[in-house]
């Protein structure tokens, strides 16, 4: 139906080129939900050992993405158990997600291992690029699906050696709509906005900005050349996403990267602190 | 843009519950969709017609209840329904990110026989 974003029917995807079939061994529907039948003016629950020629209502109240949410929580627990900080990086295509991740790998310079899960509809170009930069990288090719989901992240995470990973970066499929609905089990959700995209992106795609912990304005080195109205853009971000910390930087030149880096370092240090009861 | 996938997930849950009560047909499906869920109701309706073909829900009625956004003010703790994209508390003008409702993507009920 929606060829524009590639969203499609079959959720068949590949992890590092290996097709993944069937439901994840990590995913299953939990306890059955009580069903209330409403018909003939009364409600009752019952076993089904008799005919039901009449229609009746099943009251469900189920979250359609509950299965994803449960698996995301499982991912989160798994990452925490490995003392890994997981960051979900989201943006439209071409806003600089891969360049930012390359810059972060370079900044860490082996002090803390970086694992990357990269989502794209096709190719493993980004994973190759990030491996060359020094990270463990797993490519999820989603085929026709316009976002990563928690199951894909769980499958890809199985390929990473977490003994050498302290920071997990999840480069989501380039798209400002669909990925917003899917919790992957991340600790931080970082939404990128590059100066070439227009100051009104937060107004056009409020849902994803409202879900962000961090908004990163990227490519500030070319802001002047493209006539970027900085104050207007920042005002739009602050008003749509008052919860988000904002960083302005250039992943290419490194300008402004320090503030983002300090923020991330604080998050990483908090992972090192003992959890649970004081 | 991911509405077909959402509908398919919803139908998978619906079929499971319908089978559990030995139903043969689904006559009506109702969903609740939040205003900032990222799901477009019109696209969802279109996807529903496509996804139910040759299934026990083919030809069934599809109803979408839209859930408006409700927020809680982080300053004065009053609850309010925001007007527009900026969730500003009408009482104290504080911008809020504490969203109580509006993100729902729920399968609420089925009518089966």
End-to-end distance of chain B, in Å? 32 Å
Written as H for each helix and E for each strand, in order along the chain, the element string of chain A is EEEEEHEHEHEHEEHHEHEH
- Residue stretches of chain B low in confidence (pLDDT < 50, at least 5 long) are none
* Helix fraction of chain A by DSSP (H/I, runs of at least 4): 25-40%
Low-pLDDT segments of chain A: 1-6, 23-34
Radius of gyration of chain A: 21 Å
Q: Looking at the chains present, what oligomeric state does this protein adopt?
A: heterodimer
Summarize the structure.
The complex is a heterodimer of chains A (278) and B (113). Helix content of chain A is 29%, strand content 22%.
Detailed description of the structure:
The complex is a heterodimer of chains A (278) and B (113). Chain A has a 9-stranded mixed sheet, with helices on both faces. A 3-stranded antiparallel sheet of chain A has the order 4-3-5, with no helix packed on it. Chain A is globular and about 70 Å long. In chain A, helix 1 runs parallel beside helix 4 (150-157). Chain A has 8 helices and 12 strands. Residues 1-6 and 23-34 of chain A have low confidence and may be disordered. Chain A has 278 residues and is an alpha/beta fold. The longest helix of chain A has 16 residues, at 66-81. Chain B has helices at 3-20, 41-51, and strands at residues 26-34, 61-67, 70-72, 79-80, 98-101, 105-112. In chain B, helix 1 packs across helix 2. The mean pLDDT of chain B is 95. The chains are: A alpha/beta (278), B alpha+beta (113). At the A-B interface, strand 5, helix 6 and helix 7 of A face helix 1, helix 2 and strand 6 of B.
